[in-house]
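Reviewers of the previous submission asked for a worked example of the structure-prediction workflow described in the proposal, so we include one complete record here. The input consisted solely of the amino acid sequence. No template or homolog information was supplied to the procedure at any stage.
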Amino acid sequence: MKVRNLIKIIAIVTVLFHVSCSNDELNETQTEQVAEKGLSLEQINAKVETFLADNSDQPFDKKMDEKLNNFIRQELEKENATESTSKARPAFGLDPNSVVPIYRFYKDGDHFYTKSFSEGQNAGFAYEGVLGLASTSFNESNFISRWYSHRNYDRVIAVGQISNENHHAIANDCFYLYNGHQLFFGIDIGNNIQVLADGFSTSHRHYWQYEGIIGGAGGNRAIHGYYNHDLKDHLYTNNYNELGAGAHGYVYEGVLFYLN
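From that input alone, the workflow returned the following structure tokens.
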């Protein structure tokens, strides 16, 4: 009798275990579906490659940038329309008019990030894909600025006012003494220029030059940062597995900001 009861208990536990596993698998599938709602970056990159192939005989300039960005927005619109129809949710996904792609390029040990595809293309860099979708609106705390080092030719993108917290290399280079007072090199996003704490403005200070605002940070896609001391190169990626905790001479700097 005890053996029969034991067999029954084992059978019940086995059934419950399989039910639990099935629920876990279902939850994982649902989570993946939520995470992949709308166009994935892989799909966006595939569409960009198709666009580039179809327009390979066209010059890359501001008009082409506008055409490419509009193409991406139209694809997002199509996906939103499809998703809202199937799920009866009229506001599904991103607003295509509120985002701008950030493209990643590479050449000779140097990575390059821009919202202008033609900028990277015409500089001779090889296209490596869309880093993420930045917001077209931003404020004092979430704007993404790009900087260039005349000392080692490195390019850095940082979020918010430059400081020792978000990028000490630039901050340390931009502190200086004026009439005995320590001033700091910041940014006036309203005028899209660099401005010193005392109101003086300049195009660059020491080795770092401000190259403009790319867009606004925000979203749920983590952007991981790395630095290679030998190459003097900052690398940003939306895929942690690309370099993991650090590889090929690149040291991991953590999640620096988020994009869509």
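The chain has five helices and 15 strands. We consider this example representative of the routine output the project will generate in years two and three.
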